[in-house]
Amino acid sequence: MSANLARLEAPLPVIPDRGGPLQPLLAASDLSKTFRLSGGFFGGRKAVHAVDGLSLTVGKGETVGIVGESGCGKSTAARLISGITPADAGEIVFDGETYWTPRSRITAERRRAIQMVFQDSASSLNPRMTLAETLAFGPRAHGIPTASAHAYARDLLAAVGLPPARFAERYPIQLSGGQRQRVNIARAVAMRPRLLILDEPVSALDKSVEAQVLNLLVQLREELGLSYIFISHDLNVVRYISDRVAVMYLGQVVEEATSEDIFATPKHPYTRALFASRPSLDPRHRVKAAPLAGDPPDPIDPPSGCRFRTRCPIAESLCATVAPPLDDTAKDGAAVHKVACWAAVPGSGHSLAAKPLERVQ
Amino acid sequence: MSDRMAAPILDIASLSVAYRGAAGWTPVVRGIDVRLEAGRTLVLLGESGSGKSVTLRSIVGLLRDEGARVEGEVRVGARNVTTMSDPELRQLRGGRVGFIFQEPMTALDPVFRIGDQIAETIVRHRGTTWKCAMGMAKELFELVQIPSAARRLSAYPNELSGGLRQRAMIAMAMSCEPELLLADEPTTALDATVQIQVLLLLREIQKERGTSMVFVTHDLGVAAEIADDVAVMYAGQIVEHGSADQVLLTPRHPYTQALTRCVVRGSYRDAALGELGGAPPDLGRLPAGCSFAPRCVRRADECLLAAPEPCEVAPSHIVACLRAADMAATPTGEFQES
Amino acid sequence: MHGTLGTGAEADIVETPAVRHRSYRAVVLRRFVRQPVPMTAALILLAIILSAIFAHYVAPADPFQTRVAQRLAEIGTPGRLLGGDELGRDVLSRLIYGGRISLTMAIAPVAIGLFVGGFLGILAGYAGGRTNMAIMRSMDVFYAFPSILLAVAIAGALGPGLENGILALSMVFIPPIARMAESVTTQVRSYEFVIAARLSGASTARVLREHVLSNVAGPILVFASSQVSVSIIAASGLSFLGLGVSPPNPDWGLMLSALRQSIYVNPWVAALPGAMIFISSICFNLVSDGIRRAMEVRR
């Protein structure tokens, strides 16, 4: 049976909890990032608003899923929250302490608290390092002697299901996709982080391996008391692993709610379209009509007002002029369910919105 | 199934493909038989390394250029592809057989306008005038539902979004009214909302034109959306073959059953996901007996001794498993999401 | 049955032997040695270099001693095995001694270019932004001139001589090596394993040393070694123009320049220095190709 990671002799100390269980582990507010593109000599300067005013909190032990299509800014969001790409504006608070602001630097010891797991690819592991060297690198950078860092690396390999006797001295190219992804996860866990940001961690894997890796992630989360930000384009995967889900479209969160709520009663037309786009898995009940036409628009030049309006089946003239706010629409007492859609704002003037008086139901 | 009397559009008989590796020939496809009747869609379902894409490429004789050793026979219509000359093959590709790739950028030439590329194919295969070909290209763009078709014809491939590029690729594949369309994971690189559009489009075109199709995918959901028949491949062999309902709803091979169990659904709070332990075998060092046996939960001792012969467990439902007869069909059920 | 790491392990079902540890360098060396053509080229180069170093023991005659009777002697003349030059000096000895200057002029500028250009390029690539802009735009200035013209101009300004020739050629090799280093570093920097290393909190120096350097060193080294053959020819060119070393010092370029006047009298002897330049530059190219192949990441 597997080694229990929590009991594993870790040379790096566990980062102590400060604020208690109710304080959010991570609170990112108003993160924005614009990438400038040079538009050629005569093209002027263009900019991609990759992430626009993203706010996200992650509770202790909680998993927040971010789902969206290509160009929605979910991967940029991951890099902003990890601090590897500095945002243009915003603030990140980690367990009550400022982790990052546009003017601050993240110290090495702090950095350890948030680690990332990337999509499996040829460049996710250093091709010129053995697996043991790869896993020992981080701990060594924190002053752990090479010998104990290597011993730790072997324990980590065992803990993610790769027998160290056969795997420690292998190079990444000698691994299958699933094995590589286990090493990617082990490398992040080696730092004893409190938050793991997983960017499409199972998207490149075969379906049978996907299930193995998801089960591993669920188990690690329990054993180590980790929190996850889980990013994927696959709704089923996000639903499986997440407690709360945020749906992103063109750099903005359009809906955010608990996993059950968002899957039981999606409120944003985009979320509903995403759900309806899933293949049915039953040849007798196939999808009859595509819920949306066309591709997501280019993030270089997003539509005015609500960014989804160009593909939205219920868009009205109001949507083109003013962008809807991301507000809580849950009834009193229910869990927060935020939606950015005029149709969900009572009295907004959208024909599908409740009239102000009918609000008390 | 004897009521469909038409001659098969595609007939693959004991096809084997091997590539030369560091240690001799490595088998990639090991003796597969596939028949596809006109107007139907066959999905080759399998994971990476199962040989599904190689099988697809063998249909248009693409393996010859790759230095592969091909044995067996591939017939498209009445013609034997394995013995065709190179000019005959070129006439086949893009003529009677259309091909759709996963990444259209690899198939479209980035320095030519898309309309010109399609018109060129039409002129080459049908000998029409350029003007006539451009008119047909515009009709094709309308067929694949590209908005403002006339304007898009004069676009370069990189100016189109992923979904439009894939549509343009389909238009090109359809340009000579092929009898057989080959699609290699055409929707895998697309976003979810675009994937379903392309699947519906392919379904529609197929119904309208009566084109037959072989569609390669690793995704059970995509297979369920598009397939009439499904052939599940594992380690270069077809382990289960039948109608989409048979294979996806009442799978009889332990590998297919494991695949359906691995489909992610529900929440982690409800249940751990079904897993398929282990990894596909190294094709250079295949185990004796059934190649799935090392990972199989229903393995018996005799499975390790001899490779199972395909047997018909229900009309047209073929399973290559020694224990197929012992195993009751286990419906996978409850696929429909609430 | 499921949900445990033990069964989920995607360990090979077929037992594979434990992999013995071999350092990356040992692997590359082993692969290089197993390639016949680059290995032969390397041995030829080694022979040329060793005989140049130990020219004093290897050369059959004094390279400076003139002998009027053997002016433009045929190949195979006793005492002048590969013939005599226009002053009757032993061509074989001069070729062996000439390797000292010619190979120094070929390798030293590239070595300097590798060191300086590699440093600047990796710095520019890893730092990105303004640092990159400053370094790479100043490198671009050098691209405004054809390389050999640049070398001629610098050497002309500095005056003839071995050191000045090396300096002039170094200036030629710094920009292309820097540009090469910058582009591979920029690429490697974006790889996930470098991002993961940065996220672990490791210092920039450590990330550069352990993750970036090993992955950019290969391409840069291979590119630089392919430049050695360019350098041999450029150095010979400088000497030929009278801007490198001056007579009577033996140098392949200089010898070629002097012997070309007697090409109708004794073409075989006149061709010998050219052949040396040709052979050594080809050998450097083959060796660099072999290194590239040995460094490829594969099973």
How is this structure best described in words?
Chain A is α/β, with parallel strands linked by helices and 361 residues long. Helix content of chain A is 29%, strand content 21%. Chain A is globular, with a radius of gyration of 22 Å. In chain B, a hairpin with a 2-residue loop joins strand 9 and strand 10. In chain B, helix 4 crosses helix 5 and helix 5 crosses helix 7. Chain B has a domain of 199 residues: P-loop containing nucleotide triphosphate hydrolases (Rossmann fold, 3-Layer(aba) Sandwich). Chain B is of the alpha/beta class and 338 residues long. By secondary structure, chain C is mostly helical. Chain C has a single domain, classed as Orthogonal Bundle (MetI-like fold), CATH 1.10.3720.10. Chain C has 12 helices and no strands. The longest helix of chain C is centred in the middle third of the chain and has 37 residues. The N terminus of chain C is likely disordered. Chains A and C meet through helix 3, strand 6, helix 4, helix 7 and helix 8 of A and helix 1, helix 9 and helix 10 of C.
Shape of chain C: elongated
How would you characterize the largest beta sheet of chain C?
none
By secondary-structure content and strand pairing, the structural class of chain A works out as alpha/beta
CATH superfamily of chain C: MetI-like
What value does the average pLDDT of chain A take?
86
Strand proportion of chain A, as a percent range, falls in: 15-25%
What count of helical segments of chain C does DSSP give?
12
Distance between the termini of chain C: 34 Å
CATH superfamily heading of the largest domain in chain A: P-loop containing nucleotide triphosphate hydrolases
* Total number of strands of chain C: 0
Instruction: Compute the number of structural domains of chain C.
Output: 1
Quaternary structure of the protein: heterotrimer
Q: Output the number of helix runs of chain A.
A: 12
Radius of gyration of chain C: 25 Å
CATH class of the largest domain in chain A: Alpha Beta
* Rg of chain A, Cα atoms, Å: 22 Å
* Biggest protein-protein contact in the assembly: A-B, 49 and 49 residues
Assign the CATH topology of chain C.
MetI-like fold
